[in-house]
Write a structure and sequence with these properties.
Structural class: alpha/beta
Radius of gyration: 16 Å
Shape: globular
Number of strands: 4
Strand content: 5-15%
Strand order of the largest sheet: 1-2-3-4
Distance between the termini: 22 Å
Number of helices: 5
Helix content: 40-55%
Length: about 150
């Protein structure tokens, strides 16, 4: 997969996975099993199954993947405890994690999506700033400003 990214010119840093409910479970699991880190993963009203067969297969490279977790306080399907276990597990393994809570049921809100978009934008801007600093120190030309928002899709 990494080779395909290299061949197509897409950096793994520009790849974000995300989902709602079981889609969030799939996104988190897929990201944490990758042999290379991606730009980030978001899980809305979701959790991470912490069964041993899965936990033992998580890659060291995935420890640097930023995670945004949205917890619905009135969720009738995903318990807060399951979400909190996932947040704690990810933080303890070293993943940069942002956990936001929302006073709603098992649903998606515009405020939640705005928060995800802001989180993704900050990650992309930080990466772009880092790349610009690296290129300047190496004497290379800076990235165009248009690249600062590349990879931010919802």
């Amino acid at each position: 997969q990494r080779q395909m990214c290299i061949e197509t010119g897409i950096s793994p840093d520009d790849i974000f996975l995300g989902g709602f409910s079981q889609g969030g479970v799939i996104a988190l699991t897929a990201a944490l099993l990758e042999p290379f880190p991606i730009g980030g993963v978001f899980a809305l009203s979701s959790y991470l199954p912490l069964d041993e067969p899965l936990v033992s297969r998580l890659t060291d490279a995935s420890k640097t993947i930023p995670v945004f977790q949205a917890v619905s306080l009135k969720d009738e399907f995903i318990s807060q405890e399951a979400s909190e276990r996932a947040s704690s597990f990810l933080a303890n393994r070293g993943n940069p994690i942002q956990t936001n809570t929302y006073d709603m049921k098992h649903e998606i809100s515009n405020r939640e999506l705005d928060d995800v978009a802001a989180w993704m934008k900050s990650l992309v801007e930080n990466l772009a700033s880092s790349e610009i600093r690296h290129k300047k120190s190496a004497g290379e030309q800076s990235l165009p400003a248009a690249l600062l928002t590349s990879g931010v899709l919802l």
